[in-house]
Amino acid sequence: MASSRIFAPRGTQDGLPGEIRMKRFVESVFMEHCRCYGYHEAHTPVFEYSELFERGVGPVTDIVEKEMYTFTDKHGERLALRPEGTAALARTIIEHDLTKDLPLKLSYKITCYRQENPAEGRLREFHQIGAECYGSLLPQADSEVITLAYTALRAMGIRDLTLNINSLGCQSCRTSYINALVRYLLPHANSGELCSTCVSRMGRSPLRVMDCKNPSCREVAKKAPKLADFLCDDCRDHYEGVKASLDAVGIPYNEKNHLIRGLDYYERTVFEFKAGEGGANGTVCGGGRYDGLCARLGGPNIPAVGFAIGEERAIIAMRESGMEEIPPEKPLVYVASDAPSRASRGAARLRGLGVYAERDLMGLGLKAQIKAAKDCGARWLVITGEDGIRLTDLKTGAEQPMPTEAWDDVARAISE
Fold first, then answer.
1. CATH number reported for the structural domain that contains residue 371 in this entry
2. I want to staple 402 with a disulfide (CB 3.0 to 4.6 A). Which of 146, 226, 389, 407 is the partner?
3. Is 50 exceeded by the pLDDT of residue 289?
4. In the predicted structure, residue 101 carries a pLDDT above the cut 80
């Protein structure tokens, strides 16, 4: 009796060749921009102690309360699959004492895990690329990471980009805002306009109400007090400096007074890039400043600013912008022979010289191999026999005889 089929877990997707080509393109474009900006790649483990994200991301966030994949290992340690990259990178910087030479500019390519309700562009296993700058309080650092994200997204082929920015202020001026926000929210909570989650969070983290996806809560949030009206002089000056820096490099932006991010470590600048009319799923990049994160994790009190791009969402936006699928690379040469051992030896020699070479693996006769060479799009055909090698240009039909085993000559001829 046939066994039942097994499918990929809900919220995950297989990386088929076409999707992987798009993903590699996204990563190569991003990493080339990071190279030009001086952001060096770093890696972190795929799982960390749960406490890292509870302290770093914040206990009263959707990520920690609802979405983290947590488990206890056989030694009783509480661990979590990485739901985002910044807290893990900050832990790495502290652990390896990388704050001696500032600014420190790092980039990453990571896989993340969140137990969300799957939708287009929102998976339980997803991929992020990001860049972070540690050590600078200047608004020019904010502008630099925003510019890096903007130019990279544009280079990926995403055309319809909208940059939204806001300032959350510092801990001092945000306290005044939170008091005003709670006074505004209380009547709406009492009238049942807020969801139960937002009501429970009002006493612990009222800003989270502004990030709720519930339609009723979003309507309440639209008319809430504006954080910009509560900024202290230093935070207002910093925010104005960020906008001036963006103006200087010609990056358009919208001020979105109620924009926050769903992570507690953000303060002062927050921003997001949206593509098209995709609503929440149209957000392809998000970031901001998190000056207190390292200190919160037991490290030095150093400022930081950065962002992350969701690769799956970026690919959706690229396709919606009209970018065509990336075709697979075609072999440069096809090695044919009526003796499989000669074809194997010839293909291996060419591959060892860095040539993309194909050969028959289906038991075809010589005539069928020649047809297969044309069908697969190879530019050159090599027929290797006892008496030597015949090299054929499949584009022009020109033939060139060569001695047996003259594979170095073949590689030079097809590379000219």
1. 3.40.50.800
2. 389
3. yes
4. yes
* Residues 24 and 56 reside in one and the same domain: yes
More confident residue, 310 or 227: 310
Query: Is the same domain home to 116 and 42?
Result: yes
What range defines the domain where residue 369 resides?
333-415
In a domain, 183, yes or no: no
Same domain, 276 and 366: no
Q: Using CA atoms, how far apart are residues 171 and 344, in angstroms rounded to an integer? A: 68
What confidence category does residue 279 fall into, taking pLDDT thresholds of 50, 70 and 90? Answer: very low
Same domain, 274 and 366: no
Residue 50 lies in a domain: yes
Is residue 100 domain-resident? Answer: yes
Tell me: do 365 and 408 sit in the same domain: yes
* Single pTM value for the model: 0.87
Residues 53 and 159 in one domain: yes
Question: pLDDT confidence of 405, banded at 50, 70, 90?
Answer: confident
Choosing from 269, 299, 320, the residue where a domain stops is 320
Mean pLDDT (whole number) for 408-414: 89
Q: How many CB atoms lie within 10 A of CB 171?
A: 10
Residues facing residue 339 across a β-bridge: none
Instruction: Please tell me the total count of domains within the chain.
Output: 2
The whole-number average pLDDT for the span 192-200 is 79
Average pLDDT over residues 98-119: 91
Binning pLDDT at 50, 70 and 90, where does residue 396 land? very high
